[in-house]
Amino acid sequence: MAGQSQIAQSTYKAQDCSSAVDQVLSTTKGRLLSVKPRENRCIVTVIVPHGEQRPEKVVVRVDYSNADNGQ
């Protein structure tokens, strides 16, 4: 299914969008395309190479715990 977009909900929690990006990049071995912070969630989009095949766009939704609940 190379070349098609894939959307996944992550099974791990992150502290913030920065750590979410680090986790997604280390898991997928891809290149960061974009990150969109949302309420208690980050949407991380990466491009994952597949050797000689067309790279795959992967979108991962990562929930994170907000340490500053008072804001």
Write the layout of secondary structure elements.
Elements: E1 6-9, H1 17-28, E2 31-38, E3 41-50, E4 53-63
Parallel strand pairs: 1-4
Antiparallel strand pairs: 2-3, 3-4
Detailed description of the structure:
- By secondary structure, the chain is α+β, with helices and mostly antiparallel strands.
- It has a domain of about 45 residues.
- Helix content is about 15%, strand content about 45%.
- The chain has a four-stranded mixed β-sheet, with helices on one face.
- β2 and β3 form a beta hairpin.
- The protein starts with 5 loop residues before the first strand and ends in an 8-residue tail after the last strand.
- The relative contact order is 0.33.
Quickly describe the structure.
The protein is an alpha+beta fold and 71 residues long. It has one helix at residues 17-28; strands at residues 6-9, 31-38, 41-50, 53-63.
Strand content range: over 45%
Distance between the termini: 42 Å
**Mean pLDDT over the residues:** 81
Biggest pleated sheet: 4 strands, mixed
